Amino acid sequence: MHVSERSVKAAFLYKFASYVQWPDVDAKTDAPITIGVIGATDFARELAEITANRTINSRRINVRRLTMGTSLDDLEILFIAKEEGDHLPQLLSAARDKPILTVTESDGALSSGSIINFTVDQDRVRFEISLYAAEKSQLRLSARLLAVAQGVHRGPEPGQ
Amino acid sequence: MIGIRTVRNKLLLVVLATNAAALSITAVLMVAYDLHTFRETLQNDLSAQADVLGLAAGPALEFDDPEAAKEYLELLRAKPIIHSAAIYTSKGAVFATYSGTADAHTEFPKIPESDSYQIRGGEVVLSKRIVSNNEILGTVYFSAAYEPNRRLRDYLGILGLVLAGSLAATVLMFLRIQNTVTGPILDVTAVARRVMEERDFSLRARKTTHDEVGVLVDAFNSMLSEIGNRTTTLEQSNRELQREIAEREGAVRARDRSERRIRTLVSAITKVVWVADWRGHITEESSSWQTYTGQRFEQYRDAGWLQAFDEQGRKEVELAWAHAANVPATFELELRLWHAVTERHHYVRLRAVPVIDQDGGVAEWIGAVQDIEDRRVLEQSLRTLNTELEQRVADRTSQLQEANKDLETFSYSVSHDLRAPIRAIGGFCTLLVQDHAAQLDAEARRKFGVIQSEAARMGVLIDDLLAFSRLGRKALQATALDMRELANKAYAQLTRDQPDRKVEFRLGSLPTANGDRSLFEQVWVNLLSNAVKFSSKKENATIEVGAISEEREHVYFVRDNGAGFDPRYGKNLFGVFQRLHGNDEFPGTGVGLALVHRIVTRHGGRIWADSKLGEGATFHFTVPKESSGGAV
Question: Which residues contact B161 (CB under 8 A, 6 or more apart)?
Fold first, then answer.
């Protein structure tokens, strides 16, 4: 059975929510987790399908398709597809300093300020994590997530 | 150690046993509990392990990272009990595996069971779902060793060690503290042993503690003193008992001896002895009865013995018995009993004595029969002899009285007839001398004078004899007599003719006597004339008259200090014509004292004389206070 790369990423993406702790989480226990997707329309549609009947810590999951210039407020997770790679630094900087888990799929995206970046290793989808960026965004990542990451970047990226 | 039988060892045994029992029970319960919970614990343990592993491996499954999962599984190497483990994906595919053993020939199930826990032989197989956010991520699979026996073995080993260590510690502790507990007890034991061996109850145990052993020591000591006292008392009472037993034995011996003696006596006795019950029935054999009467036991038993008496005797015995049954008392009868040897009835004396029992009733009768036949015969002949004798005496007496009367009549008539010739001789001599004086020479006159005086004396003698014989026939005329007056008058009459005689006459007071006046005048005249006569040759003659009143008679006496007489002839004094002195020495007829004797005895009195030759004489006569009026 062949699973498309995007399907795996979609599955991974919503699962990340389980290992992330947002600030002010107590105030939003009932509010749905909102995942914003920029760039990949099919991806957003697949993600919505996957998460339709699922909850994370009793919070429903809300998938929102975003376009450039849309406000990033009320987002918990922001996925930036590699189709939007040109706008990556712009988007990341907009999300910076906000409690938003930024997930990218572009090489070297971490150096642009992304928190989690998907990679492909021997046809398998992996990911790398920048703890530095997470801390900037006031997010706390579970050690268990770190354990399965392909790489964990603890300090600031060289480019920054 | 002196053996298991000391308090110390028993205590030690108790402590050890208690300890071992407590430990054993605890151990058994613990083992049971542990074995019971072992499985559960193992399950919980493995289950928790699976949970932890599942939790850790959750992200690996979620993010499809078998290596990470493999790394987690490798951590199980710290738990050698788990032989093998595996993680399956939610779709049932093997995700990662682990094998604890070197030969990696471990088999894993193709598709894991959902949550399960199974024991198969020596191993446990566990499957556990990995769930996160209500989503099944995969399954953890364990295969672990299941060895409860080994665990039990380990447990028992530990228990053994603990038990050994505990008991050793107990022994050590006991040896250290046992002296404080058993020491005083051992002291008491030592004293008790000495008391038993030496029998010395004055020993006392030393009290060193105030616990229960101290109380025991006190109790032991007080018990010792009590036992000492009791022993002393017991020994004393023992001695008394022995003495009493000795006395009792002595009494029993004496009783036995007395009984034997009585039996011997009864068998030796010639008398007939019998024993009858309260009704008078003979119940025991009596050999003496059998011998005497010739009755056999069947004949004389019960009331049969009465048949041996004659008819009169039988009646008497029945009568006496009827009376004695009412008032139990000894009775005695003289009866005639059949005597087998002589084949006739003999006179016997039957004596029956009741044996009184405790209630006062007659228990039995004991009797004796004595043969008095010989005595009765003797008595009979004696009585006959006596009667004959009395008859002979009476005959002889009457003959004598007849002879006496004849004699008195004869002597009176002789005396009376003699008086006339004597008077004639005297008278004719006087006439011859007066008428023929001139023809007679002096010699003839002297011879005629002798004839005259002898004839006169003869006349006096005859008068006396007449008086004497008259006395036997004369009746007494008793009146109260003043004896002093009679004596005084008689003395005055005697001495009237002899005024020149010097005699001291002492007349005491004399009691009145009852008698014939003329006869007692004669008594006084005769006794006093004798006194005057026999004291006539004394220079200072003394005549004393007195009397002593005794209970039944008056004793009068006349005493002189004259010639007296030889006492050997005293009893001849009062016979007729009995004279102790010659007529030339002291003239007399020899009738006077015989007359006095007769008068006194006729009045019921007595007369006697005391004297020594040359030292005077005393004549006593008595007159009864009550006149007897007796005859000669």
Answer: none
Query: Which class for A18: exposed (0-12), middle (13-18), buried (19 or more C-beta within 10 A)?
Result: middle
Helix, strand, coil percentages for chain A (3-state, nearest 5)? 40, 30, 35
Reported as a single tens digit per residue, the pLDDT across B279-313 is 778 887 777 787 788 888 888 888 788 888 888 88
d(CA B374, CA B377): 5
Phi, psi of B172 (to 5 degrees): -60, -50
Contacts A–B by Cβ distance under 8 A? 36
Report which of B143, B144, B48, B141 is spatially closest to residue B93, judged by C-alpha positions: B141
Chain A residue numbers with beta carbons less than 8 Å from the beta carbon of B64 are 8, 124-125
Tokens of B367: 């009797």
Q: Give contacts of B70 with chain A, Cβ < 8 Å.
A: none
**Residues B228 and B202 sit within 8 Å (Cβ to Cβ):** yes
Do residues B448 and B429 lie in contact, with contact meaning Cβ atoms separated by under 8 Å? yes
Return all residues near B349 (Cβ < 8 A) that are at least 6 apart: B332, B333, B334, B369, B370, B372
Q: How far apart are CA B114 and CA B138, in angstroms?
A: 10
- Lookup: tokens for A145: 């997530």
**Minimal C-alpha gap between B100 and chain A (Å):** 23
Per CB-CB distance under 8 Å, the chain B contacts of A142 are: 59
Reference A137, options A105, A94, A104; nearest CA is A94
pLDDT in tens, B188-239: 888 888 888 888 888 888 887 788 888 888 888 888 888 888 888 999 999 9
Structure tokens, B274: 């019998």
Q: Are A113 and A93 in contact (CB under 8 A)?
A: yes
Q: Pinpoint the alpha helices (H) of B565-618.
A: 592-602
Tell me how crowded residue A87 is: count the other CB atoms within 10 A of its CB.
15
Give which of A20, A119, A148 to mutate to test B binding, by max B Cβ within 10 Å: A148
Interior CA angle at B329 toward B328 and B333, to 5°?
125
Phi-psi group of B232: left, alpha or beta (phi > 0 → left; psi -120 to 50 → alpha; rest → beta): alpha
Q: Where would I find the H helices in B269-310? A: 287-293, 297-300
> Of the candidates B128, B150, B131, B148, which has an alpha carbon nearest to the alpha carbon of residue B140?
B128
H or E stretch covering B66: helix B66-74
Cβ atoms within 10 Å of B27's Cβ, excluding its own:
17
Q: Is A6 exposed, middle or buried (0-12, 13-18, 19+ CB in 10 A)?
A: middle
Report helix, strand or coil for B325: helix
Instruction: Tell whether the torsion through CA atoms of B396, B398, B400 and B403 is positive or negative.
Output: negative
Cα gap A113→A108, rounded to integer Å: 9
Minimal C-alpha gap between A148 and chain B (Å): 6
Which residues in chain A touch residue B57, judged by CB atoms under 8 angstroms apart?
none
| Per-residue pLDDT in tens (0 to 9) along chain A, 160 residues | 456 788 888 888 888 888 888 887 666 667 888 888 888 778 888 888 888 888 887 788 888 888 777 777 788 888 888 887 787 888 888 777 788 888 888 888 888 888 899 888 888 888 999 888 888 888 888 888 888 888 888 877 665 5
Are B60 and A142 a contacting pair at CB < 8 A?
Answer: no
CB atoms within 10 A of CB B598: 19
**How many contiguous H segments (helices) and E segments (strands) does chain A have?**
5, 10
> Taking phi first (over 0 means left), then psi (-120 to 50 degrees means alpha), and beta for anything else, what does residue B121 get?
left
B487 in Cβ contact with B546 (< 8 Å): no
User: DSSP 3-state assignment of B362?
Assistant: strand
- Give the C-alpha separation, B214 to B221, whole Å: 11
